[in-house]
Design goal:
Blueprint (H helix, E strand, L loop, with lengths): L1 H11 L4 E3 L2 E3 L6 E5 L6 E6 L3 H20 L2 H17 L1 H12 L3 H21 L6 E4 L6 E8 L3 E4 L7 H13 L3 E4 L6 H13 L6 E3 L5 H10 L5 E5 L2 H13 L3 E5 L4 E5 L5 H13 L9 E7 H16 L2 E2 L7 E3 L5 H16 L3 E4 L3 E2 L5 E2 L2 E4 L16 E7 L2 H9 L3 E2 L1 E5 L3 H10 L4 E4 L14 E2 L2 E2 L4 H4 L4 E8 L3
Parallel strand pairs: 7-8, 7-10, 8-9, 10-11, 12-13, 12-22, 13-20, 14-15, 19-20, 22-23
Antiparallel strand pairs: 1-2, 3-4, 5-6, 6-26, 11-25, 16-19, 17-18, 21-24
Helix pairs in contact: 2-8, 3-5, 3-6, 3-7, 4-5, 4-7, 5-6, 10-11
Bound molecules: nicotinamide-adenine-dinucleotide.
Length: 488
């Protein structure tokens, strides 16, 4: 029965490129295969775009731009709202599809559909709120008019870890602003984006406004699109090294860019924290998405007086986790995205243990089919361990003790990243000091998950440029014009 449902769903997902409102194979008939990371089985074969296909997608986005930019805001808003409504109707299909291609437990996939959908609703509402201004200049010798304009065709590159939400977080504000887009999802999880393109088509998005190119050749295809002067904006979510190389290329065309890059989130627990709440927050901030989130807590910086108790409590929680394919009831630890991710998590754990950390739970690769790693808890992780510098992207909770507030701040800020931080304290004054002292674009104060469509999501330092969501999100896709006219 379940198998039938999966087979039916997979056959409903288009297997072509979506260009100019048409589904088509790659011009050279190249394909790529998509696997289920819980089993290693190939679940679908789809088109793999060439550079020529990428350029055809840009042609379509460029051709569709003038009409879409001129479409009244209300009409664009209503199309986005229809997309939101259709997503509610198809939410079970989207959740299952993400579990199949990415591995996250079904309950979390449902959470991502809810979160991802909110960007469609939020930006449908923001569409009509883009405003300019008009007024006398201070010298009284003219009138100043300030207007907002869509930047033009955009290239949107998304990662594999949140296949739906990372797409809606870019597509919705771009369309709301009047931009057209070429979307390139990760080759590991392209099916959700293809299925979403079908939904947008059903919602009435005109041909050419959204184009999707799935490909095995991300580098060459992206380079060609970025080098084309018709492109006016690049929005990327992914790792910092790839983001930096894309920024260098985008600089040649002085492209507008938004970069949502890697993180190394500190999770600071003070001795005055409510430990029950801190443990709940830690489980959410660490094990959501099997640790594969840019916002995942990477370093648990815990006051020495409560560090043992914190380790004991999180270890007890981890012992209850069920491991398995995300479609099975009650599973918390699904597979990691691939065997490389498993090897990376294990290398970081091994390095930390070699340098003197204590192992409380896990610490091993789970043998057999699929890419599984045990939920792991380490304490007394020593300075200099790789796990404190690198994004873990796996179910590994690493605890570092501290003695006073200054030391906690120093450790927390000792990273090139600055996406998000989490702080647990019952002291209002200490919480306020942390808001001012921690170098991150977002903070969870006594809460373990911060993402919200109505909030400006984004990082400081090497974690990125620009903001997605909130009132800020649409401005990433708008440019300002100032006009001066003489007095009437
Ligand atoms: P990645 O950088 O390997 O890939 C991201 C995307 O870029 C994929 O679509 C990939 O195909 C594409 N890509 C890879 N090389 C490219 C190239 N040379 N030219 C053009 N495109 C290229 O990252 P990933 O492994 O898919 O995702 C995990 C990373 O994403 C982590 O570092 C995570 O922190 C980050 N992330 C950040 C946010 C955020 O909002 N800040 C959200 C989710 C994930």
């Amino acid at each position: 029965m379940t198998e039938n449902r999966e087979t039916q769903l997979l056959s409903d997902v288009p297997d072509g490129l979506f260009i100019g409102g048409q589904w088509r194979p790659a011009e050279d008939d190249a394909t790529l295969t998509v696997s289920d990371p819980a089993t290693g089985d190939v679940v679908k074969t789809i088109a793999s775009a060439s550079v020529a296909d990428g350029m055809a997608a840009l042609d379509a986005a460029d051709a569709a731009f003038p009409a879409w930019a001129a479409t009244p805001a209300r009409e664009r808003a209503e199309i986005l709202r229809r997309a939101f409504d259709l997503l509610q109707e198809r939410k079970e299909q989207f959740a299952l599809l993400m579990t199949i291609e990415m591995g996250k437990p079904l309950a979390e996939a449902r959470g991502e559909v809810a979160y991802g959908g909110e960007f469609l609703r939020w930006f449908s509402e923001e569409t009509a709120h883009v405003q300019g201004r008009y007024g006398a200049n201070p010298e009284g010798t003219g009138r100043m008019i300030v207007t907002q304009h869509p930047v033009g065709p955009c290239f949107l590159i998304t990662p594999w870890n949140f296949p739906l939400a990372m797409a809606t977080r870019k597509i919705a504000p771009a369309l709301a602003a009047g931009c057209t887009v070429v979307v390139k999802p990760a080759a590991l999880t392209p099916l959700t984006t293809l299925y979403f393109a079908k939904l947008l088509d059903d919602a009435g998005v005109p041909a050419g406004v959204v184009n999707v190119v799935t490909t095995r050749s991300s580098g060459p295809l992206s380079d060609a699109i970025i080098a084309d002067p018709r492109l006016r904006k690049l929005s990327f979510t992914g790792s910092t090294p790839v983001g930096v190389s894309l920024l260098e290329k985008a600089a040649k065309g002085v492209l507008r860019t938004s970069m949502e890059l890697g993180g190394n989130a500190p999770f600071v627990v003070f001795d005055d924290a409510d430990l029950d709440k801190a443990v709940d927050g830690a489980i959410a901030a660490k094990f959501r998405n099997i640790g594969q989130a840019c916002t995942a807590a990477n370093r648990f910086i815990v006051h020495r007086s409560v560090a043992d108790e914190f380790a004991r409590r999180v270890t007890a929680r981890v012992a209850e986790f069920r491991v398995g394919r995300g479609t099975e009831e009650g599973v918390v630890v699904g597979p990691l995205i691939d065997d490389r991710a498993v090897a990376k998590a294990h290398a970081l754990v091994t390095d930390a243990l070699d340098r003197g950390a204590t192992l409380h739970a896990g610490g091993s690769v789970i043998e057999g089919a699929g890419s599984f790693y045990q939920a792991t808890v380490l304490s007394d992780v020593q300075a200099g361990s790789e796990i404190l510098r690198e994004e873990i992207f796996g179910p590994v909770l690493a605890i570092v003790p501290f003695d006073d507030e200054d030391e906690a701040v120093r450790i927390a800020n000792d990273t090139e990243y600055g996406l998000v931080s989490y702080v647990y304290t019952e002291s209002l004054a200490r919480g306020q000091r942390m808001i001012e002292r921690l170098q991150t674009g977002m903070m969870g104060l006594n809460i373990g998950v911060v993402s919200n469509a109505a909030a400006p999501f984004g990082g400081w330092k090497m974690s990125g440029l620009g903001r997605e969501g909130g009132a800020e999100g649409i401005h990433e896709y708008l440019q300002t014009k100032y006009t001066l006219t003489p007095d009437p």
